[in-house]
Design a protein that fits this description.
- This protein has 111 residues and is an alpha+beta fold.
- The protein folds into 2 domains: 1-40; 50-108, SH3 type barrels.
- Helices cover 32% and strands 24% of the residues.
- It is built from 1 helix and 5 strands, in the order H-E-E-E-E-E.
- A 5-stranded antiparallel sheet has the order 4-3-2-1-5, with no helix packed on it.
- It is elongated, with a radius of gyration of 25 Å.
- The N and C termini lie far apart (82 Å).
- This is Reverse transcriptase domain-containing protein.
- It comes from Microthlaspi erraticum.
Length: 111
Amino acid sequence: MPLNPALNDDSLLHSLDHAEEPLLRMQNYQQQATRYYDRKVRNRRFELYDLVSKKVHDFTKPEHAGKFGFHWEGPFRITKIIKPGVYELDDCHGNPLPRPWNSMNLRRFYT
């Protein structure tokens, strides 16, 4: 088979187009899944000075907590509403937490 640079270039471009199609399908699927999930999510709204619990993440759990450790900790007081869904918190002694918290990681604390 003789070398034909024009045919090789066309063949290479054709194979690159086929290589991008699975990536485009995957991105389309991810966008559809995100839209489906976001449609069902209810935003949690909190007011200033509400008491909330915050989710305990794996990197903040005590080492010996294990499977039956606490999943929520608190109470914390909302001291500032940065924007809807993002809050700054203080602990029960009035010490501020180092970063803002998203409402997905908070839930109302009932006393």
